[in-house]
Task: structure prediction
Amino acid sequence: MNRRVSAILSAVLLITGLSAQERNDIPALRYDENKSLTWEEAVSFYSDLDNRYSEATLLEMGMTDAGRPLHLFIISSDGETDPEKIHRQGKTIVLINNGIHSGEPEGIDASARFAADLLADRNGLKKYLRNCAVAIIPVYNIGGALTRSRYWRINQNGPEEKGARRNTRFLDLNRDFVKQDSRDAKAFAEIFQLLDPDIFLDTHTTNGSDHQFTVTLIATQPEQMHPEMEKYFREKMLPELYTRMKEEYGNEMVPYVQYTERGEIKAIIGFEEQAYYSTGYAALFNSFGFMTETLVYKPYNERVIGTFQLISELVRFAAMNNREIIRLRADANRHTLDAKEFVIDWEQDTTRWDMLDFRGYRYEETTTPITGRKSGFYNHDKPYTETIRYYNYFKPAITVTIPDAYIVPFAWEEVIRRLEINGVHMKQLQHDTTMTVETYYIDGFEPARRATQGHYFNSNVKLRTVTQEVDFFRGDYVVPVNQKSKKYIITMLEPQSESGFFAWNFFDSFLEGQDWYSVWGFESHLKELLDHDPALREAFEKAKQSDTKVGTDPVAQLQWLYQHTPASELEKRTRLYPVSRLMRAGNMFNAGN
Ligand SMILES: [Zn+2]
Result:
C-alpha cells in the first residue's frame, strides 16, 4: 500500500503544471512496482523535462545499430550545452551511461529519477549545478532495450521485463569501446570526445557473487592515472564515496566482488581493466571512471535507489571539488604529453593489498530441488562480517617506449576511421617518401579458437623490433603521438596491447603470404640467377653441405633458393606489422608537410 502511494506521489510531483492532455503522455517511474522504463518511455520522460526546464536539453547524437538515434540529456544551470563553454566556466562534467546491458536497467530508472529531482531541486540538489553539469545517456543499448522479455537474465530479481544484454548485432557494447564494431560505440565515442567528462559512470547489475551488499563498485584501475590523480583517487575520492554511502544512506558499498576461489569469499581482487571496457576507455582520457554493479538478487527498487544514491554522491563530489578535479586532470593531461614510456599491460601485484570489512553469507552444501545436483549456496540465514584482503594494486607487465609518431598506411581505412572518431589528429604524406623507422615483425601469436564479439582475438604476441628504411606513399597517415588522445593511439596501435587493433584482427591479412613460386617455372630462372651471383652460388653450396635437408631434398633446395633471392622480398614483409614507429620526427609536424 505504502509503495503504491509513494509511486503515485512522485508521479504527481513530476507532472505539476501540465495540462490534462500532457499528463497522460508522461510516463511515471515505477521501479517501486518492479517496473523499468522502456526506451520510448525514457525518451519521452526526458523530453518532458526538456520542455519544462530551461536548464535541461535533450539532444540526438549519432545513429545506433538499432536504426534509432542515441540521445544525450544535458543539465546545466544556464542551459548551456556546449561542453567547451561549460568547462571554461570552471564546472566539472559528469557523464552517466545507462542500459549498456539493457537487461541491467537500474541506471535507466535511477538517472531519470535523479534528473527529475535535480531539476525540481528536491533535497537541495540544484545547488550542485553551480559547479557541475550533468550529462545522461538515457539508454545506450537501444537494440537490446527494444527486445524486452520477462525471461532475460533469468536469475535476476526484477524488474518484471527487461532488455537483452547484446545489441542488434549481438555485440556486447561493454567490449566495444575501442574497436567500435557497432554504430553505438562510434556514437558514444563522439559524445565522450565532445564532453570530455571529468567523471564517468556506467551502470550495471552483477550476478557474479552473493553477499549482503546492494551496490558494488568498479573504479578505474588507479595506476592508469597520473600519480597525483591516483593518490587523490585512492586517498580522498574513493574513501569519501564509500563513507558517504554508509553514513548518509546506511547503504554500505563494497568494491566489485571478484573472488579468488569459489565458495566462501576469502579475498577480493581488483578489476584488471582493459581499454575495451567503459572505465578503461575513460582512463585513456584521464577521466575518473566508475561502473556500479548492483547485486542481481536484491529487489529491483533497492538496486535503483542504491544507483540513485551513488549518482547523487558522484555529482555532489564533482560539484564540491570542481577546482581540484579540474586541476588534477589538467596535470594528468600534461603528464601524459610528457611521458616517454607507456604501460600497455598490467598484472596483479600479489604482494600488496588493503583490508576491508566484508559482509557475506556462509557458503554451504545442498542438493538442488529439481536436478538433485550437489551444489554450494550462500545461506542468507547465516550472515557474517569478516575482514578480508582486497588486492587492488597492479604492476607493469609490458611497457613500450613512445615514438614521436606512428605511420599508418592509407590502406587501413577501418583503423584510420576509428582514430578520427577518437579525436586523433593526423597528417597525410604529400609525397612518396622513404624513412628510417622502427618496425615490428610478429614472430608468434595465438588466435582464439572460438570467436568472441565476432573476432578471433589474437593474444600472446611475440615480436621483434627492426630499425630499417621503409617506403611510404603519398596519402599514408602520420599520427603524431603527443596529442590529447595519446593513450588511445598507443593502446590501439601497439600490437601487444590486448585492446589494440592487432588483437581484434584488424591487421590479420598481413599475416598471410604473398605470391610464393611454382616449382615448374622457378627452376628455369634459377640458373640465370646463380650464374650472375657467385656469392649466392657459394652460399647455396655451403647450405647443401651444412644442412642435410637442403643437401638431400630438391624441394628444400628450391625453398632455400627462394628465400635467399630478391624474389622473396615481398614475402619478408608478410609478418612485418604495417604500422611503423617514427622515433624522431624532427620538425616534420612544424613544416606543414
Ligand atoms: Zn553489465
